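Continued from yesterday's entry.
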Amino acid sequence: MIDINGFKWEAQFNDMSIDNNFLAYTDFKNLKIYIGNEAKGNDTQLMYHLRHEVTHAYLYSYGFKTRESFTVEELCDFIGTNAEKILALSDQLFKEIKEQE
């Protein structure tokens, strides 16, 4: 369980073969981050998807929900404020996953 701005998120592997368009997915309603089983064994792909989905979770948890566009200033403010935390959380999840293998 990970905490982002008071929201309790769960990250887990899932069979993503149901929808081949996605190798990872952030479920905003249930506060879950799903990473496709296909990413197991490919550290580069796993880290990419972790960072991508954790960023979605941060956006949601800080009130951006599912907005599709941002001003340059909003984007720079968000990255400037949250990039280190997003990368650290992604690294933490990556290490936890690798320890379970």
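--- second protein ---
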Amino acid sequence: MIHYKRAPQMVDAHGPVLHADGFEDAVIGIAQRCGETPVVIYSYAACIAAMVRKGMSEHEAMEFIEFNLVGAWCGPGTPMLMHEMGFAEVEEYAEGWESARPGDAES
């Protein structure tokens, strides 16, 4: 299980910014949008690597990260995980997104 901690020095008008305890080396930045709480961003690959260093297989680490970080919602300050990729990779990823959007299927 991942423990989320409030970063007391990182509280804005929308609530606290949270960070996942034990993944400090995987932090790659902060994301913010107009009118929303900033969130800590973690490198997905670095989080997997951290769990592998702790003795998990890569598959176990992916399942753990998907369930405990990607699948967690602790409010507006919940951290994000980022899959680092270039623009061409983003476009390719987005093509799969577009074909999987609900309501876009022909009747």
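The chain has three helices and five strands. The chain has a mean pLDDT of 82. Will compare against the first tomorrow.
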